[in-house]
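Many introductory courses stop at the sequence. We go one step further.
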Amino acid sequence: MTAGGDVFARFLGAKGYVLADGAIGTQLFASGLTSGDSPELWNLQRPETVREVHRGHLRAGAEVVLTNSFGGNSFRLRLHDLDGRVAELNEAAARNARAAARDVCGTHGEQGRTVLVAGSMGPTGELLAPLGSMTATACAEAFTTQAEALARGGADVLWLETMSDLAEVEAAVRGARAACDLPVAATMTFDTAGRTMMGTTATEMAERLGPLQLAALGANCGSNIADTEAAALEIHAALPEVAVISKPNAGIPVWTGSTFHYTAGPDVLAAHAHRAVQGGVRIVGACCGSTPEHIAAIAATLADEQPVPEIDEPPSQRAEALPADAAPLRSQSRRRRR
């Protein structure tokens, strides 16, 4: 177990896996959030809506809930003229998740469940020098500010997610650790070529980030379930002693006529979760397009409360395999979790 890995020990020791939550953005959009709005602002404007999203995942069986703060760093919030409110928005995000956990599980897990609140921290959206203008120092400072607020709000662990650049992950880890002593987990997102947008393979991620002694490492989001699953298993092969995360999207987002949807139902993600845990992954959940129904199916399957869905492999995610009127939206899913 890596340093900080004991944050997951109570779950792993009991049953060998930890169930994380599903998408936040998907349900916020269903509740009225529009493209171009800041989901983080809803932590203050519509906190009950945000809390109900968390409660839905908790009722479905999630043991880890990620805060509504994915775009909560100063670089991302600047796009909404909110960069002066980083601390306020992130602290509120953690407080909302913590309140939802109390609502479902009680103050100290009196109802027999303990929930971890993970402070979600997504990428800045900027490129580090020399490819871009962001310095490693400025990057780290942005994550320090965000991490401090998430810790004040009650986060148990800091959760870097949907990252593509190893150098940005390293700067983010430095920034997070400068803020507080909470354990840090990190996931990257992998494309169909088995690499991140910056060209990193899962093995390279494991080799570079393994020495940082993170609480957990893994893969999330991505262009399809198969590649996210493969990346998570590749990380496990390289670092078998580390708790590995797999949080794939619910298939890929497509337009069919005027309807926007994701291609994978709860049974597909449940089958993925079973394969992943059997392969050594220890933290499973879901990302864009997923709902509490997906998490409930994963929970029931892993607890042997329902048969493993008879889906041997993820369905083809190639664009040419989709209906002619179904246009994939891969680039959009990486800019903002949905």
